[in-house]
């Protein structure tokens, strides 16, 4: 019997506690729960109470002393920022662009510096843009489909061959090039042959000159002989005895 009375008393007490908790104001219920170490998404713990975060562009200079209140917030100095509601004790330093980057948007107290690659370079936005890569240059037999941007590389494609261009190329390789090589070889051969012919004529010239010199000497000797013979005959006529 006493056990039954005890169980009824415990049940009634539990019902009264549940009913009382349900009728409490929402703020009171939250404070009681937060007292045990659980704060809301936009709050941060300070001892046994929860304080509201400071707004973006500010930081917590001193926390609150009353639960559910915002402490003393101070605006970020130049060159620093906080992008979201926070409970930071100081603002974050603004980023500096790399040597292969340029400033796209300046840093503010609520936004970090935004950098982009310099002209002729790109960086994939889905990756950590620590290094900008050089844009691709299309080859001679390619054409540009899409130019390089700050966030995408150049897109190239092969230039389609015109009808008959492949046959022209085959004709050039099989006919024109061998003909050019043949002409060059023929020119070299003729030049070499001409050079050898001049050398042979220069070697025979001394014999020809000697033959001409002998012939000239014989002509002179013959003319002198005829002259002497003529004088001798005239003398014979002059000294011929007179016959009556």
UniProtKB/TrEMBL annotation:
The keyword Thylakoid does not apply. The chain crosses the membrane at residues 169-190. SMART domains: TNFR. Residues 1-22 form the signal peptide. GO terms for biological process: positive regulation of apoptotic process; TRAIL-activated apoptotic signaling pathway. It is found in: Membrane. Pfam families: TNFR_c6 (PF00020). Residues 75-115, 116-156 form the TNFR-Cys domain. InterPro entries: TNFR/NGFR_Cys_rich_reg, TNFRSF10. Keywords: Apoptosis, Disulfide bond, Glycoprotein, Membrane, Receptor, Repeat, Signal, Transmembrane, Transmembrane helix. The keyword Transmembrane helix applies. TNFR-Cys repeats lie at residues 75-115, 116-156. This is Hematopoietic death receptor. It comes from Oryzias sinensis. The lineage of its organism: Eukaryota, Metazoa, Chordata, Craniata, Vertebrata.
């Amino acid at each position: 019997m006493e056990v039954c009375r005890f169980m009824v008393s415990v049940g009634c007490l539990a019902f009264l506690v549940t009913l009382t908790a349900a009728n409490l104001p929402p703020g009171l219920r939250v404070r009681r729960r937060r007292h045990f170490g659980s704060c809301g998404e936009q709050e941060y713990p300070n001892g046994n109470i929860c304080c509201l975060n400071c707004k973006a562009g500010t930081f917590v200079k001193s926390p609150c002393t009353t639960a559910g209140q915002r402490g003393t917030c101070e605006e970020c100095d130049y060159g620093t920022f906080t992008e979201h509601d926070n409970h930071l004790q100081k603002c974050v330093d603004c980023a500096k662009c790399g040597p292969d980057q340029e400033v796209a948007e300046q840093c503010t107290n609520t936004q970090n510096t935004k950098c982009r690659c310099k002209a002729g370079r790109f960086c994939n936005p889905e990756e950590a843009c620590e290094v900008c890569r050089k844009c691709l240059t299309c080859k001679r037999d390619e054409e540009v489909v899409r130019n390089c941007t700050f966030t995408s590389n150049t897109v190239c494609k092969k230039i389609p061959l015109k009808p008959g261009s492949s046959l022209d190329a085959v004709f050039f390789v099989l006919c024109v090039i061998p003909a050019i090589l043949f002409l060059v070889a023929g020119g070299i051969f003729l030049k070499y042959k001409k050079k050898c012919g001049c050398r042979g004529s220069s070697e025979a010239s001394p014999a020809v000159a000697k033959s001409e010199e002998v012939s000239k000497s014989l002509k002179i000797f013959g003319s002198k002989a005829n002259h002497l013979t003529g004088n001798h005959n005239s003398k014979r006529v002059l000294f011929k005895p007179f016959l009556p």
